[in-house]
Amino acid sequence: MPVQRIRNFSIIAHVDHGKSTLADRLLELTGAIARNAGQHQVLDSLQVERERGITVKAQTASIFHRHKGQLYLLNLIDTPGHVDFSNEVSRSLAACDGVVLLVDACHGVQAQTVANYHLAKQRQLAVVPVLNKIDIKHANPDQVCQDMKLLFGIDPNEVLRVSAKLGTGVSEVLERVIETIPPPQVQRESDFRALIFDSWFDKYRGALNLIYVLNGKLEQNQDIQSLATKKVYPVKSISVLRPAECPVPGLSAGQVGLIACNMRNSKESIVGDTIHLKNQAASAAGSYSPQQPIVFAGVFPADQSKHVALRSAIDKMILNDSAVTVKVDSSPALGQGWRLGFLGLLHMEVFCQRLEQEHGAEPIITAPSVTYRLVLSNPKMIRQQGRDTMDISNAALFPEPHCIKEYYEPLVLGTIITPTDYVGQVIGLCVERRGLQQSSVNIDETRILMKYVLPLSEIILDFHDRLKSMSSGYASFSYEDHGYHLSHLVRLDIHLNGKPVEELCRIVHVSKATSVARQMVLKLRELIPKQMVQIAIQACIGSKVLARETIKAYRKDVTAKLYGGDVTRRMKLLKQQAEGKKKMRMFANIRVPHETFINVLKR
Ligand code: GDP
Ligand code: MG
Hints:
By secondary structure, the chain is of the alpha+beta class. The protein is built from 15 helices and 33 strands. Strands 11-10-16-7-8-15-12-13 form an 8-stranded antiparallel beta sheet, with helices on one face. The N and C termini lie far apart (about 55 Å). Mean pLDDT is about 85; it is low at about 50-60. The structure holds guanosine-5'-diphosphate (GDP) and magnesium ion.
C-alpha cells in the first residue's frame, strides 16, 4: 500500500460520547467485523471494560476502505476518554496524523473534549469534527456547533452529524478522514525505524509490541535492536490487527502492526522506545513523552509467600499499562512490597481490579497519596537525604513536625464546564476543596466554563464523583499540572485498640485534620464487623486524639443454632467461618476486611 493511501487516525471524545460505538460502526462498514454481530463495543475486550462500560486500553484496528475507486488503508486507534487515562490518549496520538473529534449532540462540549482538542492541536493533527447521537430527540446540534465555534473556532458547516448507534452519516466520516487527514510523513527508502507505542503480555509469545513504522520496512526473521537497551531480538512474527490478529510478511513505513520478538517483560519492551535494524545507527523516534503518575499507593502481598507471584502479576500488568511506575517498598507491618504510581484513583482501582481478575492476585493496597515536598530543618535528616528537601508520598515515612521547615503540596489547574443551574453547588464544592477561582466564561446562556486552582490531593479521591452527582451528571472536569505551593500538612494516624495501622495513616492539610479524622473513624465503625473484643478506633496527630469511636464486642457463634449432635455439620460451619476470615487482615486480634482500606477513603 503506497504511503499516499494510508491514513492513521484516532477518535477522541469525552467519556460516553460514543467513541467505541463509532469505532464498531466503522469496522462493520469496512467489513472488518460482521454487521450486528450481537456484540457491543468489540474493541472493549477487557473484563473490566465490559463491567464498567468504559474503555481503559486504547485498541487498534487496521481497516481497508474503497474511496473514489482507490483502496485506502486506515489505521484506527480507539482511545479511552476518562480523565485518568489521558496517558493512553497521548500515547495513541504519537502514531496519528489526525483525529476524529467526537461530541455528543445532547451533552455538548465537555471538559475532556476541550482537553483532548488542545492535545491534538499541540501535535498539529488534522481535526475532523463530528457530532454524534443526532438520533436523540432532544439533541441540539445547532447549539453544540455554536459552542464548538466559540471554543475551538470550528466552522459549523464543517461539522459532520452522525448517529453511531444507527449508523447514520458514518460513511461520510470515512470520506472526510481520507480527504482531510494527511498521509503519514514517513520515508520508505531509508533504514527501518519504528516507535513502540503499546505493548502487552501474551502467555505463549511474551511481550508483544505495537509499533508505528516511521522509516523503511521490517520483515520476519530480521534482527531488531532497541535504542534504549541496545539489546537485539529476532522478529518471530508480524501481524496487523483487523481487529483480530492477521499475520503479514512485513510492515512498511506508515503502517501500524504487532511484532513478537522474544521480549520477556516491561524492562525490555518499553513504550516510547525506538527500534531499528541490528547494528544500524538511528535517532529516537521520540515524539512521545510519558505522563508522570500523580497518585502513589503501597501494594503488598496478603502474605509474604505470595510475594513472587504478586511481583510477576504486577510486572505483566505494567507491560500493558506503561503509565504505572513501580518502586520497591517495605514496611514493618506489611513486609516487602512495592510503591506504585498511578494517573488517578480510577486508574489505580482499575489496575488493582485487573490484578485480581486477570492474575488472581489479592494484594493489600495502602491509602493513595500525592507526592508532597518537604524542606527539612533537621541536620541529621539533611545529611541522610544528601539535601535539604524530601519528596514523600508514603504517609508512614512522614517525619516528626520539628524536623520540617516548610511543606509544599502539588496543585492543578482544573477546567469545569457546568450548566448554570448548578454553579452555586459547584463553587461550593471547589471552596470546600480549598480551590481558588481563576476565571469564568459563559459558553452560552445555559453553560459556564470555570477555571480553578485546586490542591491535587483534594481532587484525587472523589472530586469527580461528587461533581457528577451534584450536577445530575452534567458538569465535567479535566485538569493539568500547576506546580507546587506552600502549605501546612500533618500526619493523621489511625489506631485500633491503641495500635497504629500503617495502611490507614494519611497526610492531610492542617485545616482538614479534624473533619477527616471524624469522617474516617465513623466510616471505619461502619466497615469493620463486630468481633469478640471491643474495638476502639482513634484518629490522632502525634499523641493528640482528634476523634474516637467504639465498636462493641459481639460473638458471632455460627454453631449456636445447632444442638450439640451433628459433628460433621458443626465442623463444616466452622470451616466456612474460617474461610470467611481469610479475606481479612489481622491487627493484634482485630480482623479488618480487605476492601476496608479503599472503602474508607470513599464518602
Ligand atoms: P465511549 O465512552 O465514548 O467509548 O462511548 P460508548 O461508545 O461506550 O457509548 C456510550 C453510550 O452512548 C452507549 O450506551 C451507546 O450505546 C450510546 N451511544 C453511542 N452512540 C450513540 C448514538 O448515536 N445515539 C444514541 N442514542 N446513543 C449512542
Ligand atoms: Mg469506549
